[in-house]
What does this fold into?
Amino acid sequence: MRRTIFLIASVIVSALFLWLALRDVPLADIVTNIRQADMVWMLIGAVTVGIGLWTRAIRWRGLVNNKVTTLEAFHMWNITMMLNLLPLRAGEVARTLLATRSGVPLMTAATSIVVERLLDTLLVVIWLSIALTQTPTAQPEAVRLAALFGIAAVVAFVVLIVFARYPAIPHRLLALVERLLPFLKRLHLVRLLDHVLDGIQPLTHWRTATHAIVWTLISWGVSLVTFTCLLTAIGIRDNVLLMATLSLTLASFSIAIPVSVASLGPYEGAVKLAGDAAGLTSTAAGLARVLSAGFLIHGVNMAVYAILGIIGMMAMGVSLGDVMKAGDQQPETVPSA
It folds into this structure.
């Protein structure tokens, strides 16, 4: 019953966001723009999607202490991304349990995903903060606020690493807060704190941290190339690098919305918002082109995820039913990120 309600809610959310995005643009214009897209740039963009998945697999392999091969990590990552296209978003949990089949301890697999989320979120926040300062309509106050937001994200990240390295400090601070506000003890914050500290523990080791940070930068750089290629394919060349950066970062936040079908709707809305910020939607033709880019980028990514995910299942000898069943098994030891 809960799954049915979630599925219905996901369809409604996607439909709502699609209506909001498309209400000012004829669907025929978007179809025409996509049909006229440059196939060469589209193919290059599709290839770089696969390269981006490969770089993320290399990062993840290091986070699980190289207990799987790069090819195995690649297949598991692809299965993850394919499952995340479905409403229940069971990809990460399925990857955790598939990794245990290859000899990775459950907590190692689970915490590796926490580290991935933390690094990706940090980079996206910093990148978005920088990009917002470069938008044509950026006001001085907004520029300062964006810069402060990026600095705050870095400071928060450093504090988390220090806390993970010296866990007695946050525990003492939490104990002090709970003495001042006794009702907080009902929230079991100590357990939550321990989960968070365990999750980011790998980043307290310089080799693991260096590997993860370097490959995070590489993977997001490849993703930026993907967006740039697909924006170029649709005919967006003015401010294309700024548009690619804004689209990539905002689309990343849209994917975090749990209730939607393959992020359909929120994703396109995020690209439209990026186009607004980059000054590309002032005309009807510009708005149609930006929305066409949103559908094209999203469609190419989903197609590559689906194809490589199916190949990954075949290579690992699992079926869609197997990985969906794994996704349903959400052990309490898997911390949420």
Remarks:
- Residues 2-36+106-302 form one domain.
- The chain has a mean pLDDT of 87.
